[in-house]
Amino acid sequence: MSERTLPSINLSLCTRCNLCVSQCPELALIMANDGPTFVDLITCSYCGVCEELCPTGAIRAPSSVNWSVS
Amino acid sequence: METDHINQLPIFAGLAQETRLDLARRSYIRALPAGHTLLLEGMPAESAYVLISGEARAFRMNREGRVQILARFKPGDPINIISLLNSDKRNRATIEALSPVTVLVIRSADFDALIARYPDFSNILLHHLADRLAKITDLAAGLSLFAVRARLARFLIELADLSPSSSGWTQDEIAAHIGTVRDVVGRLLRDFEAGGLIQRQRGQIILLDREKLIQAARE
Ligand code: SF4
Ligand code: SF4
């Protein structure tokens, strides 16, 4: 997965509750007119907190699961 | 009659040429987009499928809308066999494409005819059913015997032991698989990370310590 992968936000499910914006540990999200938006392509660490907390399941941050190679 | 698409599917490796030819005659290929619902739970079972490419999942939803994922299918996996063999011939689960998929479709009447005529075809189905039964038994045992933390550890080990999957897993999907909810998965993943069992990188959950994970899976 590339360095710039970001979680996807389905704005049609978003209720603008602001939880993802307020709880993001990296301050990677701001609330724009049409819903939460990433401030840029690099601040988000893809930690999954927004996906975990979003009450409507609007945010998806899929991860593959692999063994460490070392 | 071309049998190339049949020959490519390992599940049909043991079929005699005559069976392959008839199977090729009685089946066809469909390409479907990601998100397409192949089957709806409770509806009449009209076809069996074999996944040729892409990924799909089987799930059931309860009245509150909570999803329990029953299986995730990868290329080569047969789909909806049990529903066609059951006397009520109703789909046992909803099947959804997780990526663009190509499937081999065998209509119900053709499926029945193949079973009636070709013991080697029936034999393949028997082996498949035995595999499914073993998996469903494991799933049921896991749900009843192990705590959510242990189920998550087991599930992560299983996923990492499988060949690499083309699409990743969301916390929702993991939760639906192990019979819990998304925020519990999120908390447990953080707990595993703090304990040095896993590391999360952008788009990847990397399992670091097999021993610790196996121990967590037994607790
Ligand atoms: S937490 Fe979910 S519903 Fe709330 S603003 Fe963020 S995306 Fe929208
Ligand atoms: S994945 Fe983590 S860092 Fe990225 S937006 Fe969500 S909460 Fe913020």
Strand content of chain B: 15-25%
Distance between the termini of chain A: 19 Å
When the domains of chain A are counted, the total is 1
CATH architecture label name of chain A: 2-Layer Sandwich
Proportion of residues in helical segments of chain B = 40-55%
Distance from first to last alpha carbon of chain B:
55 Å
Question: What's the oligomerization state?
Answer: heterodimer
Q: Enumerate the distinct ligands.
A: iron/sulfur cluster
CATH topology heading of chain A: Alpha-Beta Plaits
Structure explained in plain terms:
The complex is a heterodimer of chains A (70) and B (219). Chain A is an alpha+beta fold and 70 residues long. Chain A contains 2 helices and 5 strands; from the N terminus they run βαββαββ. Chain A has helices at 19-23, 49-53; strands at residues 8-9, 29-32, 35-38, 59-60, 64-67. In chain A, the strands form 2 sheets. Chain A has a two-stranded antiparallel ribbon with strand order 1-4. In chain A, strands 2-3 form a two-stranded antiparallel ribbon. In chain A, strand 2 (29-32) and strand 3 form a beta hairpin. The longest helix of chain A is centred in the N-terminal third of the chain and has 5 residues, at 19-23. Chain A is globular. The model of chain A has no long low-confidence stretch (mean pLDDT 90). Chain B is α+β, with helices and mostly antiparallel strands. Chain B folds into 2 domains: 4-121, Sandwich (Jelly Rolls), CATH 2.60.120; 147-218, Winged helix-like DNA-binding domain superfamily/Winged helix DNA-binding domain (Arc Repressor Mutant, subunit A, Orthogonal Bundle), CATH 1.10.10.10. In chain B, strand 4 and strand 5 (67-73) form a beta hairpin. Chain B is elongated and about 55 Å long. The N and C termini of chain B lie far apart (55 Å). The mean pLDDT of chain B is 88. At the A-B interface, helix 2 and strand 5 of A face helix 6, helix 7, helix 8, strand 9 and strand 10 of B. Strand 5 (64-67) of chain A pairs parallel with strand 10 of chain B. One iron/sulfur cluster binds at residues 7, 24, 26, 28-29, 44-50, 61 of chain A.
